[in-house]
Specification:
The protein has two helices and no strands. It is an all-alpha fold.
């Protein structure tokens, strides 16, 4: 017997996009940090 479930029933993660914001901001900060190190150290 097969049980049909909707996409929302079987999804385990959130789809709000918060993780994308965190990753985007983190990536931006890393790039800015590396640029600052390259400018002030080298």
């Amino acid at each position: 017997m097969t049980v049909e479930k909707s996409t929302n029933d079987v999804r385990q993660g959130e789809t709000t996009g918060k993780v994308r914001w965190v990753l985007g901001i983190s990536l931006t900060l890393v790039v800015v940090g590396l640029i600052a190190v390259a400018v002030f150290v080298v």
